[in-house]
Write a structure and sequence with these properties.
The structure holds two protein chains of two kinds. In chain A, 74% of the residues lie in helices and 3% in strands. Chain A is mainly α. Chain B starts with a helix and ends in a 6-residue tail after the last helix. The chains are: A mainly alpha, B mainly alpha.
């Protein structure tokens, strides 16, 4: 009886451990092993670090990596935009609940459908350019998705469009939790609206801002495959490829499992820096008793 | 006066923002109601002679009904399995004691942030060997695994807020832990479980990468993987594609309007605590 009592937690976590081992641990081990092999499934040949050398010599991989890094610029942009909007909502503006619901809506929508839609909105003769020409602003019209110089910022904008509401909601909730006395005390001391926002409210929600930025950095580094696949398929001429797309393309369309796996390992190395930062933030906020 | 103009400015900003947020959705609806001809002549204008033909065509030219059913089946099985597995694991983490308890919880948090693309090549080879490629169980199995880290994290955080005296009292009364979980903890966790189910269902419904790679028979696709096919085959039929996109979004919209606060609470849970 006593024995059974102490053993029950193992029974309870066992199914989860088995599932995690199968879905995560085993594939992670395999993907590291594959990166030292070449050839196709069932016919793998050990090639040492040749795949890694191949990655750095492949301009498409280097370009994909650089695109991921460029897209990281969306993180501070969406953070600042979301903060401004959350501060406006926090002013107890009329209808703020409805606004919050509307702004959050894009975040729940499938990136596939969103990507399809934006591919029409942003096509060379698409809605945006037609509208610009109608307004005699034709000089602003660009081939948003078809030109190598514009395509990455365009993808970044679609990402911001979809992720912004997430930030707004997270920040608005954090602002709502700031003790009202703090704001009152500052007001009595003669602080103006902007001073209160900069020196009282923002420092109070610093943790949440850090969290948001880390989560979004992880997203932009490793969960934007759908946007690229639907909007550009990495084009024109690989100029909008990202690491995920490179992995997909080589692993499946080109059948280069080893090369794709080596790219996965580079991605994992970069992601692990962010994941460790995320875990640290979490541990710190747990220590702070929150 | 100054306060008034400031409030007006704020309202103007939020209205502009709402328009930017909603316009793509409106574009989907209005384009889906147009004929190809009227879209080409006037892509931005209102549908002058609205037609529902595109919605019927979506089901005629592609097995869209079948895809929807597939997505539903996959969601029910994988979300159901992941939820049950995670409830037991989270209960053990919150109320039990076992070797590696802390590590197990931290591993779940780390895996929440792991790039899914890292797993797709090896899992594909496993599915080929198991003969499951092009069958729904392949994605059902993978999704179940991928949903567990967030589910465990989300449930543990909630269970820890429950008064531990409740569990202790029941243990002293001699109730088994399965019984305590089912009779005491679960009735208190209905809203939390519902929130989790919603978040996980949206994730499964929207997932593209694994669906694309694992399911390549036309009848076996999910809605999202199917939707990408329109791009290649009906590239010049924007209204048809937007009708498909609308149908793929519709269930989410209905769910969102009906239970918005659960969405917001569940989908922002990765931030903070």
């Amino acid at each position: 009886m006593r024995e059974r009592r102490r053993l029950w937690p193992y029974g309870f976590v066992l199914p989860a451990i088995v599932a995690l081992a199968a879905a995560f641990v085993y594939p992670l081990i395999e993907v590291i092993r594959f990166s030292f092999y070449s050839g196709s499934l069932g016919n793998l040949i050990y090639v040492g670090t040749a795949n890694y050398d191949g990655l750095w010599q492949d301009p498409v991989f280097v370009g994909s990596l650089l695109n991921n890094i460029k897209l990281l610029a969306t993180v501070p942009i969406m953070t600042i935009l979301a903060l401004i909007i959350a501060l406006v909502l926090n002013a107890q503006i009329r209808g703020w609940r409805q606004y919050r619901a509307i702004v959050f809506l894009p975040y729940i929508l499938p990136a596939t459908a969103i990507g399809l839609t934006f591919s029409f909105l942003l096509a060379e003769n698409g809605v945006l350019n037609t509208q610009l020409r109608d307004w005699h602003l034709g000089f602003l019209a660009q081939d948003w998705l078809g030109s190598a110089t514009h395509v990455v910022p365009t993808i970044g904008s679609v990402i911001i469009w979809q992720q912004l509401g997430f930030g707004v909601v997270v920040f608005a909730a954090a602002l709502l939790a700031v003790p009202q006395e703090l704001v009152e005390a500052a007001r009595i001391d003669g602080a103006t609206g902007w001073q209160i926002q900069w020196s009282i409210l923002l420092p109070q929600i610093r943790r949440v801002i850090e969290f948001f930025m880390i989560v979004e950095a992880i997203t932009v580094l490793s969960a934007i495959f759908t946007y690229v696949y639907v909007l550009t398929k990495g084009g024109p001429a690989d100029s909008s490829s990202v690491m995920e797309y490179y992995i997909f393309n080589n692993g499946f369309d080109n059948g280069a499992i080893g090369l794709a796996s080596a790219a996965v390992d580079v991605l994992l190395l970069l992601a692990s820096v962010l994941i460790v930062t995320y875990l640290r933030l979490r541990a710190r906020s747990a220590d702070a008793g929150r | 006066m100054k306060a008034l103009s400031r409030a007006t400015g704020q309202q103007a900003l939020l209205i502009l923002l709402s328009l930017v947020s909603l316009y793509p959705l409106w574009f989907i609806v209005q384009t889906a109601l147009k004929t190809t001809q009227s879209y080409v002549t006037d892509p931005t204008g209102l549908p002058i002679a609205p037609t529902l033909a595109n919605f019927f065509d979506v089901f005629r030219v592609m097995p869209f009904g079948r895809w929807t059913l597939n997505s539903l089946l996959v969601a029910v099985v994988s979300v159901g399995a992941a939820t049950v597995i995670s409830i037991f694991a989270a209960y053990a983490v919150a109320f039990g004691r076992f070797v590696g308890q802390r590590a197990f919880f931290n591993v779940n948090i780390a895996l929440m942030a792991l790039p899914p693309v890292a797993l797709v090549v090896p899992l594909f080879t496993v599915m080929v060997q198991a003969g499951l490629i092009n069958t729904l169980p392949s994605v059902m199995l993978v999704y179940t695994g991928l949903l567990i880290p967030f589910s465990v994290f989300f449930l543990v955080n909630f269970f820890r807020e429950l008064p531990s005296e409740l569990i202790e009292a029941a243990t002293i009364d001699g109730a088994s832990h399965t019984r305590i979980l089912l009779r005491i903890v679960m009735p208190l966790s209905v809203a939390t479980t519902f929130t989790l189910v919603i978040v996980n269902t949206i994730w499964v419904w929207n997932e593209l990468l694994f669906a694309l790679v694992f399911l390549q028979n036309n009848d076996q696709r999910t809605v999202m993987a199917g939707l990408t096919l329109f791009q290649g085959r009906f590239a010049t039929n924007e209204p048809l594609m937007m009708a498909g996109a609308f149908l793929s979004i519709l269930p989410l919209l209905v769910l969102y309007l009906a239970s918005q606060r659960f969405f917001i609470r569940g989908m922002t849970a990765g931030i903070g605590k």
